[in-house]
Amino acid sequence: MKYQHKQIAKSKLKSRALKDKAIRVLVVLLSVVTISPIVLIIFKLIEKGYKQISLDFILKTPPNSYEAMTALANGELIPGGIANGITGTLLMMVVAAVMAIPVGVVTGIYLYENPGKFMANLTRNISDILQGVPSIVLGLIAYIWVVKGITNGYSALAGSVSLAIMMLPMIVRSTEETLKMIPVTIKEAALALGVPYYKVILKVLIPTGFSGLLTGILLGISRVLGETAPLMLTALGSTIINLNITKPTSAVPLLIWEFYNDPNMVGLIWSSSLLLMAIVLSLNLISKQIAARTK
Amino acid sequence: MNDNIKQIKDPVLSIRNLSVSYDKGKYAVKDVSVDIKRNSVTAIMGPSGCGKSTLLRAINRMHELYENIETTGTLILNGKDIKNMPTIQLRRMAGMVFQRPNPFPTMSIYDNVIAGYKLNGISLKRSEKDEIVERSLRDVTLWDEVKDTLYKKGTFLSGGQQQRLCIARALAFDPEVILLDEPTSALDPIATAKIEDLLVTLKENYTIILVTHNMSQAARISDYSLFMYLGELVEYGKTNDMFTKPRDRRTEEYLTGKFG
Ligand SMILES: Nc1ncnc2c1ncn2[C@@H]1O[C@H](COP(=O)(O)OP(=O)(O)OP(=O)(O)O)[C@@H](O)[C@H]1O
Ligand SMILES: [Mg+2]
After folding, report:
1. Which end of chain B is less crowded, N or C, counting CB atoms within 10 A of the terminal residue's CB?
2. ipTM for this model
């Protein structure tokens, strides 16, 4: 009897170990499935794009189609670069951030300060809905408001407005979540020193949650960095470097789309994508780093 | 009750008919009247939820930050009605120390001590700052431990050191009274003993009001004790008297561990 008992226990243990192993293999397999797209993407971009990457690629504007064709016919690399796209993307990002960060942070503070209030709940829900609005629709709105209404033509400002609306909900949410994580006792410590409420927010809560806020902002920026559709309706594109926000402006994703449509230039899509991807990845890594360091 | 109130001459704080409710009609503190003696340690005792923290936080008008809380009654601090004091003045006079040490995580030890000045935008000369920091840290016996690391973050200190830093932060304002809400409940026995010793020395220059769950702590360091039950002040008197011959049955039951 006793012996038999042991046997059963042993076989049970064995089957459990087997199950354990199977699950572990499954988990590893699924993680590989999850990470393989990103690895494959990066690999492909590097493979197809690295040849075009040079200092010129960052400092010069694209060649015209004829120049590109000549280079191709001579078996040379396509000359020029995407400086107009890089500066345009930077310009629109900065302007979008300048618009979205103050509004987003203040709204986030408002939501944190008034939990459960009707207006706060309404704002939170609307912000969530905004996050789900297709980017092309935001492009249309910016077209009506800014292209038609303010700059009388396609402009970097219009592009920035559409991107800012897109960033806004992310900044609102991350601000609220960051502030919620700060212990109430820190806030009360400041209040108990007689510090007026607005100063508690400015001088205690925001500095304490600063890295969280920054992480949210960087993630918001990296999310809209590659947006193309709304920019087609707003910034339009430009063959030259433009730093005037009321004028049409290029952007890296817009250039990728233009290159794709020109058989002579299509060779530039890979290096452009590689650059865009590198910027997005670095922003992500930086924000992760900031978040990790403050935990 | 009334004889007790009258025993104290020139009280630093007189509380009259103080009631506090979180929800309308439900009182966390009910009609409490009491005088607090200058340069003494007064302990507020009672079972959990009896209103100790609520009473303490009424003294520096912490409740006014929350819309749902209603406070009635009069509190006279150093001869002045606290209702009519500017918030900053009241909170300078009545410093507060919380249950969990809460130094500002973004600030150095040095800046934590003078946080009250910094955050309120009160500018001081460098020499004045240095003097306040050293004096406050000496007062809480932390100076020797941190004088070489003044510019490190306050959050790197041990729990007990952090709590002494928080007391120093309150002392930097040279307050009249120091309000402490279970300041040692998150600390180990050694750190607790240090804080207790500290409070006894501090009463030479300040008045200490201490909420504590710990009866032996109240017995060790307090001169006066207040026993609360369900929001009411049940008994108030010299700590010695209360522990040896409590007048109220509820006090006696609490002190002998029958409830709470
Ligand atoms: N923010 C609040 N909102 C609603 N009710 C509250 C709030 N804070 C405290 N109360 C209630 O008020 C009463 C007194 O609470 P208080 O915190 O003053 O008790 P306490 O004696 O300090 O208790 P403890 O020893 O557990 O700290 C309790 O019944 C509690 O539930
Ligand atoms: Mg309490």
Report:
1. N
2. 0.92
Nearest ligand atom owner, CA of B45: 1
Domains contained in chain A, number: 1
Question: Does pLDDT of B66 surpass 90?
Answer: no
Please state whether beta strands B26-36 and B207-211 pair in parallel, antiparallel, or not at all (unpaired): unpaired
| Minimum Cα–Cα distance from A201: chain B residue | B119
Q: What is the pLDDT of residue A14?
A: 83
Phi and psi angles of residue A97, each rounded to the nearest 5 degrees, phi first: -65, -40
Decide: A287 and A219 in contact? Cβ < 8 Å: yes
Q: Which domains does chain B have, with CATH numbers?
A: 3-255 (3.40.50.300)
Which chain B residues are closer than 8 Å to A203 by Cβ? 118-119
Q: For residue A227, is it left (φ>0), alpha (ψ between -120 and 50) or beta?
A: beta
A63 is a domain residue: no
**CA distances in angstroms from A85 to A241, B97, B166, listed in the order given:** 8, 56, 53
To the nearest whole Å, the CA of B149 is away from the closest chain A CA by 21
- The span from the CA of B157 to the CA of B82, in Å, is 35
State whether the Cα torsion B117-B119-B122-B126 is positive or negative: positive
Q: Which ligand is nearest to the CA of B51?
A: 1
**Taking CB atoms and an 8 Å limit, are B104 and A208 in contact across chains?**
yes
Mean pLDDT by 10 residues, chain A (295 residues): 62 85 93 93 93 93 93 91 96 97 96 92 95 95 95 96 96 95 95 95 94 91 94 96 96 96 93 94 89 73
Q: Is residue A55 part of a domain?
A: no
Q: State the DSSP code for A247.
A: S
Q: What is the CATH number of the domain that holds A189?
A: 1.10.3720.10
Structural domain including A227 reads: 86-263
Q: In what order do the strands lie in the sheet with B94-97?
A: B94-97, B177-181, B207-211, B41-45, B224-229, B232-238
CB B162 within 8 A of CB B103: yes
Is residue A269, in this structure, part of any structural domain at all? no
Cβ of B119 under 8 Å from any chain A Cβ?
yes
In angstroms, what is the span from residue A193 Cα to ligand 2's centroid?
19
- By DSSP bridging, strand B207-211 and strand B177-181 are parallel
Q: Does B66 touch chain A (CB under 8 A)?
A: no
Look at the pTM and tell me if it is higher than 0.95: no
Q: Which one-letter amino acid corresponds to residue B178?
A: I
Q: What is the pLDDT of residues B97-147, one digit of tens each?
A: 999 999 999 999 999 999 999 999 999 999 999 999 999 999 999 999 999
Q: Which residues contact B153 (CB under 8 A, 6 or more apart)?
A: B105, B106, B107, B108, B109
User: Rounded to whole angstroms, how far apart are CA atoms A287 and A277?
Assistant: 15
**Cα A36 to Cα B159: distance, rounded to the nearest angstrom:** 46
Measured between alpha carbons, how far is A96 from A37 in angstroms, rounded to an integer? 30
